[in-house]
Design goal:
Length: 1026
């Protein structure tokens, strides 16, 4: 390709000298200034480069510029145009008239292109292409002008052999199957005009990155909008709105700064144009059909967004700033722990410029940057489902990022990667980066390896608009364009607002400690408002009076709201969105309901979920599984885990709920047990029995979906999904529970504490396969101890346990269960929806119990018939504790040991007991670990008054439930005068750093030893370790 490097270096040097003197394109004859522009654009310079010598281009007659130059379609088009011109020269554009006159040798009004060579044409095209690809490298996007970027050679006309003398030559450029420069009905332009327009389009205050998108239609769409003949101009009405919004944004921060000088607010100063940008984006989105927007953002500018964009009442914001008062609820004191002001969420209906209304919700978020991203997307997706937004054009997610966190946090990538997945897509998220070019004290050079902080989005084929944050009209334009892109292509788009941070990371930080040079510049840098006002005044587009009028209006309102804030009393409990009306806070007792289902319904849905279409050809083994399942339903015996789960889902669907299960490989199930989607072995067609429980069932009503290989992103998504509507059972399953700590931030910051901090309930179910079966340290433990440690029930206080008064679960932050029977699993899932509040449920899910011959239930354990033999009179429901399966009376004085355990170790203990002489040992299963079932534990303590009390677990002593159980069991014992914590005897593995041994033989030995120990006839030492 070296021959493209045409043009002598001497000529280029000469040109460079001339240009550097004038700063404009010059020719010997004349000095031409660029057309007057409303914005500042870079000037294309011919750069001096030691170009290699190249063959001298040879002129080629136009007649030979045929298909080697134009593709087939273009030449046909040309011929048609020529015919039209021959018939009537007036019928074509003047430029075409000139073109054809030149072509046939007639006199024309322009010099013509008769000297154009094929090589020149191709080089010109390469130059245009280079601008499309690299033009952003030259764009003036940094308001501080700090960035020293090497402009690629590809943008230098001299690189392609063009010299100064070519500037006023006309070149043939058009008629390609492309938009923008290469498609105009204007075949010839001077090189000067081409360069000027390229600079205006690509190297002005917006740098466009989109050529990584491998889709001609999308690129053309953008080219159409970028390569416009003249830059966008807003009319006076729009300019006034933009000015008004920028004044609001700027004054809001100033006001807070003067009223609360020492308070942390993570102000937006330096990035104030975000607000007019967002508002215009929302207005444009509303014009294009968006009715509801879910917003996620971190600290920077959050209060400004809350006040000026979401329209949270300013008096409320100011009241919270002054320390606020805890919200007073009309029904109780359900106020939680609260959170700092810049984390709180809210939602409002906001009128738009176009006269519509748009619902905005800002999701509460923790300090953990970017953690809210997947939550917002999940909530958006749920809104789309509930509003039947099939095209995903009515509900949209918007995420606002910091430059440091967008580049650094992995969850950004995990979230972006959900965007195109059928069961996770939301039809495109708009990302705005408030790129203040610093992260706390860290410079971009230390904070990322990529050129831009937004490079991660290129993996998604998202267009990226880098815009100078000082240029409010450019910001507005980029934001509008993003809204149009999203509504047109239903995919992600990024607006990177390159700005600065006027003060420190927060208002009490000193930024010059670490960024002295930057802050020297910032100190003297005018605000974006000052810049805009000056521009409007100088161009006569606004008068001083206009500006003063808006300024004093805003000051007046801010002061009024400040005064009103002093008497502000928060009234409304705003966690109750429409769907949640009627749901109870912890002070309002929720009824305990049975979760059993009528036998005929069980049989009916059971049949639906076990029958496959006759023509469907499943795998042989799957066919047998389904035949066996049908038998379970028909005989009512031996119902296994997978069928119990499917029955729970099916019955909830019949009751009108939405059910959604997502996670890695959940369709088949990691352990090949679920088979909720089966595949025709000949056609590959999929069939999901749970989609056919009812006639004409909406396909999405039951959703089961394999997810991307992400924990943080997907769990966050499902959490957001679950929070939208309580009438849904949303479940996330980890491949193995061990991997769930990849989503630790979601567990810690949202799931365990979200209700306390933000008064938002969720009934999300998390299935974590857990259990010691010799698969080594990374496939055994869900870290049950951590979930229990995060539980907030007081270990030393027994709450009210009387069934009609009990609200233990309502006041606890979540539920942690380790269920051992299919029926109990069925009930615990159904319990999630059959109550008037929502609470997260952490399930230690089984692995080997999925096929364990003893781990079966009869259909009678699922039904609602009261008084089955062996069951409580209450009918069937979730059993928080399963008492000993031997037929023990209310008082068993002969039992010498009560072994309490949880999970699959029960079956091993039971088997051992059956094989030996241990009839004087009782074994009870604590199915619900948290909140602790004090009442049932005490019932069992009373049943066995002489028993030694043992906690047996298969996890190492520093793991598993032991540390949670011991103090609570002791509290229960103490209340009955049955001893203290010293009397809670531990039997299990010794403390360990790793969760489990990697040697199978060691596992087997340990496992049998701990079971043996728990049942040994001698009194136990405490602890008894293996
Ligand atoms: C996950 C996470 N890690 C670290 C922090 C601590 N922290 C708070 S703000 C901040 C810098 C953020 O920089 P950037 O994303 O550029 O946003 P900016 O504050 O500049 O707007 C850091 C590291 C955090 N909040 N979250
Ligand atoms: Mg930053």
């Amino acid at each position: 390709m070296t021959w493209f490097r045409a043009g002598s270096s001497i000529a280029k040097l000469a040109i460079k000298r001339t240009i550097s003197q004038t700063g404009t394109y010059t020719t010997r004859k004349q000095t031409l200034l660029l057309p007057s522009q409303t914005r500042q654009f870079h000037t294309t310079l011919f750069k001096s480069k030691s170009a290699q010598s190249a063959p001298v281009p040879r002129a080629v007659p136009l007649s030979r510029l045929t298909d080697s130059f134009l593709d087939g379609t273009s030449s046909v088009y040309l011929e048609e145009l020529q015919r039209a011109w021959e018939n009537d020269p007036q019928s074509v554009d003047e430029s075409w008239d000139n073109f054809f006159r030149n072509f046939v040798g007639q006199a024309s009004t322009s010099p013509g292109i008769s000297g154009q060579t094929i090589q020149e044409s191709m080089r010109l095209l390469l130059l245009v292409r280079a601008y499309q690809v690299y033009g952003h490298m030259k764009a003036k996007i940094d308001p501080l002008g700090l960035e020293t970027r090497e402009i690629p050679d590809d943008l230098d006309p001299a690189f392609y052999g063009f010299t100064e003398s070519d500037l006023d030559r006309e070149f043939f450029l058009g008629v390609w199957r492309m938009s923008g420069f290469l498609s105009e009905n204007r075949p010839v332009q001077t090189l000067r005009s081409i360069l000027t327009r390229l600079d205006q389009a690509y190297s002005g205050p917006i740098g466009y990155e989109y050529m990584h998108i491998a889709d001609r239609e999308r690129c053309n769409w953008l080219r159409d909008r970028i390569e416009t003949p003249t830059p966008t101009q807003y009319n006076s009405e729009r300019r006034e709105v933009i000015l008004d919004r920028l004044i609001w944004s700027t004054q809001f921060e100033n006001f807070l700064a003067t009223k609360w000088t020492a308070a942390k607010r993570f102000g937006l100063e330096g990035g104030e144009t975000l607000i007019p940008g967002m508002k215009e984006m929302f207005d444009r989105s509303a014009d294009l059909g968006v009715e509801s927007i879910v917003i996620g953002m971190s600290h920077r500018g959050r209060l400004n967004v809350l006040g000026n964009v979401v329209r949270k009442p300013l008096r409320q914001i100011f009241s919270e700033f002054s320390g606020g008062t805890k919200p007073v609820d009309d029904v109780g004191l359900y106020t939680g722990t609260g959170d700092v002001k810049y984390h709180l969420g809210t939602s409002y209906d906001r009128p738009t410029r176009g006269g519509k209304r748009i619902h905005l919700s800002l999701v509460a978020n923790p300090s953990h940057l970017e953690a809210v991203d997947p939550v917002v997307i999940g909530k958006t997706r749920a809104k789309q489902y509930y509003s039947n937004d099939i095209n995903r054009t009515k509900n949209m997610g918007i995420l606002i990022h910091g430059d440091g966190s967008f580049a650094g946090q992995g969850v950004v990538y995990e979230t972006l990667h959900l965007s195109g997945l059928p069961n996770y897509t939301t039809g495109g998220t708009i990302h705005i980066v408030v790129n203040n070019q610093v992260a706390f004290t860290t410079d971009p050079q230390a904070g990322r390896s990529s050129q831009y902080c937004t490079d991660v989005a290129k993996a998604l084929n998202a267009p990226i608009f880098h815009v100078n944050g000082d240029d409010v009209e450019a910001v507005v334009h980029a934001c509008e364009l993003a809204a149009e892109w999203r509504q047109t292509f239903h995919s992600d788009v990024v607006v990177d607002i390159v700005c600065y941070r006027r003060f420190g990371h927060n208002e009490i930080d000193e930024p010059s400690f670490t960024q002295p040079k930057m802050y020297k510049i910032i100190r003297n840098h005018p605000s974006s408002l000052e810049i805009y006002q000056k521009k409007l005044l100088e161009s006569g587009q606004a008068s001083k009076e206009d500006i003063d009028r808006i300024q004093s209006k805003v000051t007046g309102i801010l002061n009024e709201e400040f005064l009103a804030s002093k008497d502000y009393v928060p009234q409304r409990r705003d966690w109750l969105s429409a769907y949640w009306l009627g749901f109870k806070s912890p002070e309002q007792l929720s009824r305990i309901r049975n979760t059993g289902v009528k036998p005929e319904i069980l049989k009916n849905v059971g049949k639906a979920i076990t029958t496959l279409p006759e023509t469907f050809k499943p795998h042989r083994a799957v066919k047998k599984i389904f035949a066996d399942r049908l038998k379970m339903i028909e005989t009512g015996e031996g119902v296994d885990w997978a069928v119990a789960e499917a029955l729970a889902f099916a019955t909830m669907l019949v009751e009108g709920n939405h059910v959604r299960l997502s996670g890695q490989d959940v369709e088949r199930g990691t352990f090949s047990h679920r088979h909720s989607v089966i595949h025709d072995q000949e056609t590959g067609e999929r069939y999901c029995p749970l989609d056919h429980v009812m006639m004409n069932q909406n396909e999405e009503m039951f959703t089961v979906s394999n997810s991307s290989l992400s924990e943080f992103g997907v769990l966050g998504f499902e959490l957001g999904y679950s929070m939208e509507n309580p009438n849904s059972l949303v479940l996330w399953e980890a491949q193995f529970g061990d991997f769930s700590n990849g989503a630790q931030v979601i567990f810690d910051q949202f799931l365990s504490s979200g209700e306390a901090k933000w008064l938002r309930q969720t009934g999300l179910v998390v299935l974590l396969p857990h259990g010691y079966d010799g698969q080594g340290p990374e496939h055994s433990s869900s870290r049950l101890e951590r979930f229990l440690q995060m539980s907030d029930d007081n270990p030393f206080v027994i709450p009210e346990m009387e069934p009609t008064l009990r609200n233990q679960i309502q006041t606890c932050n979540w539920q942690v269960v380790n269920v051992t029977t299919p029926a109990n699993y069925f009930h615990v899932l159904r319990r999630q929806l059959h109550r008037e509040f929502r609470k997260p449920l952490i399930v230690m899910a089984p692995k080997n119990l999925l096929r364990h011959k003893e781990c079966k239930s009869n259909l009678s354990e699922f039904d609602d018939v009261q008084g089955h033999p062996g069951f409580d009179k209450q009918g069937t429901r979730f059993k928080r504790l399963i008492k000993d399966q031997n037929d023990h009376a209310d008082l068993e004085e002969g039992i010498r040991r009560l072994v309490l355990c949880s999970g699959k170790v029960y079956y091993e203990l039971d088997e051992k007991r059956k094989s030996g002489e241990n009839k004087d040992v009782a074994i009870c299963r604590v199915e619900q670990l948290c909140p602790f079932p004090y009442d049932l534990i005490q019932r069992e303590l009373k049943r066995y008054p002489n028993a030694e009390i043992v906690w047996c677990q298969e996890e190492p002593m520093n793991m598993g439930p032991y540390s949670y159980i011991a103090p609570r069991l002791a509290t229960a014992m103490k209340a009955l005068d049955r001893g203290t914590i010293d009397d809670v005897k531990y039997v299990g593995r010794a403390p360990s750093a790793a969760t489990a041994t990697g040697f199978y033989t060691v596992h087997v030995r340990e496992q049998s030893e701990l079971v043996q120990n728990a049942l040994q006839s001698e009194t136990l030492a405490n602890p008894t370790l293996c």
